[in-house]
């Protein structure tokens, strides 16, 4: 049965984080708020847990989940390099609603799905999410909703869609909105926009100059 914690209460917040730290190594899913929408996460290095995440979402291996980190150092350990633009983008927008797709560090032993040698990374600007991520290390995290359904902006909405497939719900109150993170691909010669989100293309161009765009850019977080 799922456990839900009201993290506005300091005692429940502490208990919820402690439960999440126990649940994650047991392959359980944990729902928590981010600076965009609620996310559902598992240990990125436990393939059966990632499979459970994809099953709960109702999606296949062709849509591997992004990885959220609590520190920039954790992010850089997961990639071959940040390329010519990655560090500047991190300095400008992290923690925040910008997801960066980079070439994955080939020495890593994990299986996020059919990621084609890449990983989508983000460091969210939310105190509860950051506290959790700093203790767990990188988590594979997708939006806390069934694939194709509206993103959850409250723990209750996430629970309504995901139910008992999740072990722990950390209720941090409503998120700021339902707009997802902006996704930028750094594996190409020039940064390429894959999804429009909270951070505008204009702001990104202010940091890196040219950004390739596609009017049909869209993706599920």
From TrEMBL:
One of its GO terms (cellular component) is cytoplasm. It comes from the Bacteria. One of its GO terms (molecular function) is ATP binding. The keyword Transmembrane helix does not apply. InterPro entries: DHBP_synth_RibB-like_a/b_dom (IPR017945), Sua5-like_dom (IPR006070), TC-AMP_synthase_SUA5 (IPR050156). Its EC number is 2.7.7.87. It is found in: Cytoplasm. It catalyses: L-threonine + hydrogencarbonate + ATP = L-threonylcarbamoyladenylate + diphosphate + H2O. Keywords: ATP-binding, Cytoplasm, Nucleotide-binding, Nucleotidyltransferase, Transferase, tRNA processing. Its main location: cytoplasm. Gene3D superfamilies: DHBP synthase (3.90.870.10). Pfam families: Sua5_yciO_yrdC. GO terms for biological process: regulation of translational fidelity; tRNA processing. Residues 14-199 form the YrdC-like domain. Belongs to the SUA5 family. This is L-threonylcarbamoyladenylate synthase.
């Amino acid at each position: 049965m799922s456990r839900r914690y009201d993290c506005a209460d300091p005692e429940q917040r502490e208990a919820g984080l402690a439960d999440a730290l126990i649940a994650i190594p047991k392959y359980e899913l944990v729902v928590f708020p981010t600076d965009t929408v609620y996310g559902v996460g598992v240990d990125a290095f436990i393939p059966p847990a990632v499979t459970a995440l994809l099953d709960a979402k109702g999606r296949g291996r062709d849509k591997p989940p992004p990885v959220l980190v609590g520190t920039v150092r954790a992010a850089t350990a997961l990639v071959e390099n940040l390329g010519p633009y990655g560090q500047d983008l991190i300095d400008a927008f992290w923690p925040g609603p910008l997801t960066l797709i980079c070439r994955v560090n080939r020495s890593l032993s994990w299986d996020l799905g059919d990621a084609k040698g890449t990983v989508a990374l983000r460091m969210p600007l939310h105190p509860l999410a950051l506290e959790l991520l700093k203790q767990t290390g990188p988590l594979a995290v997708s939006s806390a909703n069934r694939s194709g359904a509206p993103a959850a902006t409250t723990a209750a909405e996430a629970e309504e869609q995901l139910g008992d497939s999740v072990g722990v719900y950390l209720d941090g109150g409503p998120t700021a909105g339902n707009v997802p993170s902006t996704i930028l691909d750094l594996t190409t010669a020039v940064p390429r926009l894959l999804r429009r989100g909270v951070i505008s293309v204009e702001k990104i161009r202010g940091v890196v100059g040219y950004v390739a765009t596609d009017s049909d850019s869209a993706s599920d977080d």
